[in-house]
Amino acid sequence: MEAATELALRLRAAANARLAGQEPLLLAAAPLVALLAARAIHAAAASVADRGLRAVLVALVMATIKLVPGVSAYIAAEKSKVVEQLQSGSGSARKNLRTQLPDVGAPDGVIGELQALKDKDVKWQGKCSGTVYISGSESDGHFALINKAYSMFSHTNPLHQDVFKSVAHLEAEVVAMTAALLGSKEKASGGQICGNMTSGGTESILLAVKTSRDYMQSKKGIKKPEMIIAESAHSAYDKAAQYFNIKVRRVPVNKEFLADVKGFRRCINGNTIMMVGSAPGFPHGLIDPIEELGELASQYGICLHVDLCLGGFVLPFARKLGYPIPPFDFSVKGVTSISTDVHKYGLAPKGTSTVLYSNHEIRKHQFVAVTEWTGGLYVSPTMAGSRPGGLIAGAWAAMMSLGLNGYLESTSQIMEVSKKIQKGIDDIPGLFVIGKPDMTVVAFGSDAVDIFEVNDIMSSKGWHLNALQRPNSLHICVTLQHVAIYEEFLRDLRDSVNTVKANPGPISGGMAPIYGAAGKMPDRGTVRELLVEFMDSSC
Description:
- By secondary structure, the chain is α/β, with parallel strands linked by helices.
- The chain contains 18 helices and 13 strands.
- It has helices at about 1-20, 25-50, 55-65, 70-90, 105-120, 140-150, 165-180, 200-220, 235-245, 260-265, 290-300, 315-320, 360-365, 390-425, 450-460, 485-500, 510-520, 525-535, and strands at about 195-200, 225-230, 245-250, 270-280, 305, 335-340, 355, 370, 380, 430-435, 440-445, 465-470, 475.
- A 7-stranded mixed sheet has the order 1-7-6-5-4-2-3, with helices on both faces. Strands 10-11-13-12 form a 4-stranded antiparallel sheet, with helices on one face. The protein has a two-stranded antiparallel sheet with strand order 8-9.
- Helix 15 (about 450-460) packs across helix 16.
- The N and C termini lie far apart (about 75 Å).
- The model has no long low-confidence stretch (mean pLDDT about 90).
């Protein structure tokens, strides 16, 4: 003990002697400088771990370049040119906008003016990927039915349940019928499936993420939440992450373009609140390995959300029709929430989706309750306070009018056409289908031509396809609108590929150069700025 004390005294004396000649202010500042340096190194390491070394270095180089006089102004001018080209390609520029109320109302002319504006929309019948899922004319048949149902309840608001009890009843039935399609009647589901209607897939996803965050905070005390998604997961999860301050762990897809379960496992840590699987994913129409993800979620005690926004009203019926559909719903152990859109293949009016939970304990974390407002006690189930009861009625009318037989018939048609389109694309020299589509989304690329130049030619023929990246590709989301004209689509696609082969290079006014450059641009921050500038000038 005495030896240790003596050693400590000697060390102190040596240190004091060595530092005796140093400036006192320097000695006082040294620990602070060391702390700041340590924090900077930690932040840099965290940024590299989160974004990758290449992305961090590119961002640093770009930030340095922008410090050069004149460079920032040049970049801003070039971005402005690109935004203008994007606007011209999308027709989104705002022109001749009315900016104030008319001095005198003109009720007799309102409908005529609306019709005149509507007549300027592009011809969407049959030539849009997704977008409109109902077949036929918008003035009769199923369209007329759901429009009539909407008009009957256009004045209602489920916020006022004491007044509009009918709408609350309709919502409960839509949720229950949707849940039954997705495994609520299966013993494995636990028998507590519950949920709410929302304005669309994005709101359903936002609510599922927010609910999972709050549930895991109450269960495990997680204060710095993280979620794990495949790079093919919908961009709504990035929106949720930004809204709710959640870190995204993005995992590359495997060689089959599916969520990589091993990659997910490597990302799980003490801050993980949830994982996401898609059935199918928007880009390629492929179903992630939901069962394996469920096992992982159960093992680590975290939430698993299944994105069925596209597949919720197709996969249950495709399975009944005999298609080889892997497990995807609440019958899978570990699934805690599901989002599914009624306004897509449910053939309901736009603005209708559902978010479902495996039990009430989880769903309670979705609600917002306020007790200290002078306006009284307040509680709301979804992001919106007031909600359009007309849309709920329209969704209910769609589901009741179609029934099991109607959905089986529509699913049979679109699945059959999807397989014909897939085969037709495979038969076009120079094109290839990405992965093995499980449903009604068929993505395709090319090893012979610029696929975005093909898209420009298709656009000139009136088609509106979705442009994808990593890899550069296109997809068509098959709907009932395509059943009668899928052969025309394949003919136009073959002709477009041949045109590009014979005359490679961008066409005047085409978007191929922008899409191609955006995909190759290493500085993703600049791409993001372009998107924000475009949106700011378009809405």
